[in-house]
Structures are given as C-alpha cells and as structure tokens.
Amino acid sequence: MRKISALFLMLILNGCANQPSLLKDTASGKPEGIYQSTTKEKVKDALVNYRNNKGLMFFNADSSSVICGKQQEGGNAVLTQALIGNAYSTPPVSRVRFTISQLNNDVKVWADMWVETQMAMGQMQQMPDTSNQARNVIQQRLDELKP
Questions:
Q1: How far apart are CA 128 and CA 113, in angstroms?
Q2: For residue 135, what is the domain's CATH number?
C-alpha cells in the first residue's frame, strides 16, 4: 500500500513540476473573457454552440451559466479514478462551469473546472481542476469565443 501511495505522490509531484506557464493572468485566477457591446444571451448562445462543436456533454444552462464536460479516457481517467474514486465508481468526468455576468454594455465570463465521479452508493466525489494546462485550454476557448 505504501508503494502505491508513493507512486501516486510521485506522479502528482512530477505533473506539478512540468506544468506549462499560464497564457493569461487574471484577477480571479480563473480563465476569463470580456466581450464588448453584447448581451448575456448572445454569450450564452456562443458557449452552448462551442460545447456542441467540441462534442462536449451538456449538463445545464440558465441565464447566468453554462455547464458542460467530457468523460475522461485513458491514463487521465485511471489516475483520476484512483485519486477520487475506486474500482466501483463511474468513469470520471471533467466539467466546466462558465459563469456569465453583464457589466454595463459588456459581458464577463469566468470558468471553474473540476472532475467528478459517482461512487457505488451514489455519493459524488469531486476535485477542483486548477492545473495550468486545464486553465490554458479554457482560456484559449474564451479568447476565441465570438458572441
């Protein structure tokens, strides 16, 4: 058991040491986008369309947020399931919540990312995904968004 724990610790520390630098530093520390002279509805529609074009699963959308995600595969799924789940839990899902806020004539969006799995007895296990790699992917999508 100690060898397995040490292996996971080494994998995590190695992953932290090899993180890419952030594409953009933001006030919130999260991926953010500001879209000028538009409405929350147009930005929400652009985010829903982005989700559809990238083949992501749709979980929820309302006037102030869009939640989507994708089931993890391969090594990431195995590692995530070992960290927050067990052999009986569902395959892990990476999720992102885009929060949408109107600021006068502009709209600001920021994103929160996490991974989750459902355990055998129904309880959900979640872990925030604050890696630079995940933040950069979402930041790039927000920078490319055309509402």
A1: 6
A2: 3.30.310
